[in-house]
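# nightly structure sweep
# worker-07 picked up a monomer target from the shared queue
# config: single-sequence mode, recycle default, output format = structure tokens
# input follows
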Amino acid sequence: MRFFKSVNVDWIGKKNIFLGISVGLMVASVVSVVARGGLRYGVDFSGGTLVYVKFKENPPLDAIRAALKQKGLGESTIQRFGLESDREVIISLDQTATTRGQELDHGQSGIADTLNLSFRPADAGSKLDLNNLGAVRLEAALAGIPQLSQILQKPGQPAVMAPVPALTKALIDYRNSHGGLFRSFEELKTLGITEEVSALLRDRFYLGEFAVIKTEIVGAKIGKALQRQAASAALYALGGMLVYIGWRFKGAVYGTAAVIAVFHDVLITVGFFSFFNKEISLTVIAALLTLVGYSTNDTIVVFDRIRENLKLLRREPLVSVVNKSINQTLSRTILTSGLTFLTVLSLYLFGGEVINGFAFALVIGIIIGSYSSIAIASPLVVMWYDYRGKKKSLAKAASF
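# output follows
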């Protein structure tokens, strides 16, 4: 399948226009990053708190944002997590936000108190949320019910109910094994809890609309280490590409041109993250490394055709050979890049918040990567050989 049967575009003749566009985008990217005081790193790199929250119904993201905003945490990132049927979200609080609200560092109870600003039922009164009490607080609350203690001390009570620590463990274990929350007090019957005890629990507790199922704290030192590792991964990838292409094409000029083109792609893609103030996370780094491989593969296809045509068209000048090579591979580039672009565009539009950054990086990267394979890498090779030819001519002229 070919989009174009005969293409005769003078790509090399327009190299100054292409290079001007690329230089402009790279300068704009650097200026944007500097003007914003650096990139906006996610919790993975900057440190902070990750809170996993499960809801009874579909998570109302606007209500979650409202609750966090009341606590001065409006800049927190909220992402859906897992399958839609799981009804889970991740709340990412950066290091600054965590410091401002130190109660969040206490984990489950602090996040529950924050979200309860929007989700606590109006008729809950002074009751405690059975879905968001840890073992220590739940045991203390149960021990504080005199009637319950008296009932549990009666002989013949089920083992799950006597004493208070046993009842606490039974409630926690059941909650953890059933998605992290109780949906109704009727579930207590499956534990062998009597109606009398269940009535006392209803008087003291209510069942919240959500449960904090896990809290993770990422330290700033770990974040800095991840930044260094991410930068190292990118540099190793570029170095590996340079060595491989230099070996494949029997010369450093092709490898150098490919690496410059990939560096150009990554810099501009990161620049778009700065333009739109998007967060750099580990998934974005994965997308950038994917882009390194994808863009290099496109470039190698063009270089391979140039190498073949140099053998077949020995009498033609290099500029003509390169133009023909790019034109011959243009249909292939449009097919492969176009289909991949449609796929990642679908992920960006419909994939949800969790992979939004990953998809955005690939949407921009595939466009820039396809452009650089045609308009940057190949012209750089031509410019190098032109420079070397002029240098040899000057040296020959100087010898006479």
